[in-house]
Specification:
318 residues, mainly alpha, DNA polymerase, domain 1, 14 helices
């Protein structure tokens, strides 16, 4: 979603007192508009924020707190306890609280409120979450499944090679344009979250398979239909996330891989295998398109876990 400087959200002078008297629904509309126009959040992120904030507003209204000025720290804590009683995990409660923190930081920055009631509320402890990662052998089994003599399988093979070889998000993969890949320079241009752009190297295997797809499989599938998308489905349209997930599920069964795999598992595996191979964290951060290196650091924990496992397995005193 492109950021648009001419649509910047501006608030009139002496706006704060008026907003404090607005009901929570209107406050949320104001904040969502801010996220949309200035933060450039993806549609999925925006939907998640909207859903979490709506739940927060509903709880407050049901408890007689219809105006933002009435929401204090006690009300925030009561809401967190309510989420826990509903059975939400610590991770889910933390996500909800982060969304509400963003709302109040925005209101404080715009001088709509004088104090932040969320500031002293601790984020629920979630523990260290280690994402599912495939072994190199499992990756090789999956990549060997497609029958590259068939146009659709050739497309799928190229998609899997790039997904793993460049560590892409599935949305980035299915929305790639033909012009986004530069075979001579050996890189692909990716437009990620918030329309951020990054350049990621493309390996020899992904390059070979994708070139083959462009030269033979893609023309057969398009049948003279024009399309700007690199990986096309019916009528030259991009593949859906659900469609690609089903393909991976089918290939997993054919490859005999036991663990549960999603498109994002390839991204986790890409980062983990790079770090295990000696890549520095900053380089991996750049390739993944993480704004904060703290997000990338999770893969160092995976790598350490791998080292401990190898030590126990192979060291005589492990």
């Amino acid at each position: 979603m492109n950021k648009s400087p001419d649509k910047k959200l501006t608030l009139p002078l002496n706006w704060g007192n008026y907003v404090c008297m607005m009901n929570l629904d209107k406050i949320l509309d104001l904040y969502i508009k801010h996220l949309l126009l200035e933060k450039g959040l993806s549609a999925n992120s925006l939907e998640s924020y909207t859903r979490d904030l709506a739940g927060f507003a509903n709880f407050m209204v049901q408890n007689g707190l219809e105006q933002i000025a009435a929401v204090d720290t006690t009300a925030i804590i009561a809401w967190i306890i309510h989420l826990q009683k509903q059975g939400l995990s610590a991770r889910s409660r933390a996500r909800h609280l982060i969304a509400v923190r963003g709302l109040f930081k925005f209101l404080l920055k715009e001088e709509i409120i004088n104090a932040d009631p969320v500031k002293t509320v601790d984020i629920p402890k979630t523990g260290l979450y280690l994402p599912e990662v495939m072994t190199i052998q499992e990756i090789e089994k999956l990549l060997a499944v497609p029958d590259i003599t068939a146009p659709r399988d050739l497309r799928n093979a190229a998609m899997l090679e790039i997904l793993y070889g460049a560590g892409l998000r599935v949305s980035e993969l299915i929305n790639m344009k033909v012009q986004d890949i530069n075979f001579d320079a050996g890189f692909i241009r990716i437009f990620g979250k918030g329309s951020s752009e990054r350049v990621v190297p493309v390996g020899s295997h992904a390059k070979e398979r994708t070139l083959e797809w462009i030269k033979t499989g893609r023309p057969q599938l398009l049948q003279n239909i024009a399309s700007k998308y690199l990986f096309v489905a019916r009528a030259g349209k991009p593949m859906t996330r659900q469609g690609f997930w089903k393909i991976i599920k089918s290939y997993r069964l054919k490859a005999g891989v036991q663990r549960n795999i999603t498109p994002h598992t390839f991204r986790h595996s890409f980062a983990t295998h790079l770090i295990e191979g000696g890549a520095d964290l900053r380089s991996v951060q750049t390739m993944l398109g993480h704004a904060d290196i703290a997000t990338t650091q999770i893969y160092t924990h995976i790598s350490k876990a791998h080292l401990i496992e190898m030590h126990k397995k192979f060291h005589p005193r492990g």
